[in-house]
Structures are given as structure tokens and as C-alpha cells.
Amino acid sequence: MRFPSVVGPELAGVIDLPEGEVRGWGLFAHGFTLGKDSPAASRVCKQLAREGIGMLRFDNLGIGDSDGDWGDGSFTVKVQDTIRAAAYMAERGTPVDLLVGHSWGGAAAIAAATHIPGLRALATIAAPVDPSHVERQYDSVLDRVLHEGSHEWFVGGRTLVLKRAFVEDVRKAHLRETIGELDLPLLVAHSPTDTTVGIDNAAEIFQEARHPRSFISLEGADHLLTARGQAQRAAHIISAWADQYLDQPQP
């Protein structure tokens, strides 16, 4: 399936259909440059679908099968496209009950959550409390980007163009107030051995959030959930946690 980004180009997505009794529908926001077919996105969504929660996962601008230039995106665009993906689900008659975000996508999910009508529950996996945490990934080209306006950045076996507007937009994004104003059940899942986004980020998100809030430690997991069974375990935990909220009347 495809739907337009807020900046125009079409975004590509996949809906993992629920098996057995349909418990609800969800949306997954992938990490910084990862895409819908990354281990975390595909394995978590497929496991949730096996447990009765149908999931939409989609590629952000210029990633995977989506059109457009990645450099024309930003944190703001990622948030707005997450909201647009939820609107697409509502239009097809399967409104989003559960929003799940991994890594930078977790930060975007927090920012998008209050703009998704009828959302029942929000779960983050290995999310940073500050979106500008991603600067650590492109710090080697940051000075040139700010000076020249843009610069090529080699990441994940491909070359992307990082633009000044992207960097500046990320720096303007602040989540702490948003987290404190969330009026949704929140699950914060994080590995204590995550070397990419430290578990102190999970502690801050949890501390800022209101109840009902829950924290789950993903012992032994790496940031990308690549090892065997890690993503499925995270999905199973999210599924069990969300069960009580999926049964409640629409807010």
C-alpha cells in the first residue's frame, strides 16, 4: 500500500494482517534510517499480527520503497507522516489502537500520539528522550552540513544527503513537556545493555510520564533487536501489556 507524505512523495507500507481473533490495529514507526523491513519493524509487527493485532509499518521519506529524498525529511516530517499513516488506517476502516515506535521512531511516536484520534496505547522501544540524540550518528559531517548547507553522509551501506534544515529541525524538537502531557497508557521498553541509546533515556521518559505507565527491561537485547527472538519477545510483551487497553471503549 502507498499513501502521500506531507511533503508530497508517496510512502510505501505493508500491513501485517492479524491472525485469529482481531484484537486491534496498530502502527509502527521505524528507527532513524532503518525502514519497514528492518528486524525490529518487521519482526515486531509480524509477531503482533500473530497475536491478533494488525500492524502497518511503512518506509519514511527516501527510505526503502518510499519515494522522495531522505534529506528533505526531518523529525517534524517523520512525526507528521506518522500521523498521516494513522489517518490512512482510519480511512480503510481499521483505526489505530496501538502505536509502537522503535529508537528515533519511538521519539516520533511520542510526538505523534496526541494527534491520533482514538489511540488507546503507546509503546516505545529503545527510544531517546531527546530527538537530537541522533547527532551522534552524523557528527563526523555535522560541521560541513552547517557550513555548506548539505553534505553526503555514508550510513548503513548507502549514501544519504544530510541537510542543514534537517539538523536544525531536530535540534528544535523537545519531548519532555509532550511526555508529561500524554494522556495515554505508556509502555517504555529498553535494554540495559543498549550501547546506542542508553537506558538512562528510558528512565527519563518514564519519570516524565503520567500514570498509567510501565517499564520493561529487555535484558540481553541489542539496540536494533537483531539477535534471535529479541524482537518477538518485545512484541509479546507489548501485546500482553496492551490487552487491557484494547478491550476498553474507544476514548
From TrEMBL:
It comes from the Bacteria. Residues 26-138 form the Serine aminopeptidase S33 domain. InterPro entries: AB_hydrolase_fold, FrsA_esterase, Hydrolase_4. The keyword Manganese does not apply. Keywords: Hydrolase. GO terms for molecular function: hydrolase activity. The keyword Hydrolase applies. Signal peptide: none annotated. Pfam families: Hydrolase_4. Belongs to the AB hydrolase superfamily. This is Alpha/beta fold hydrolase.
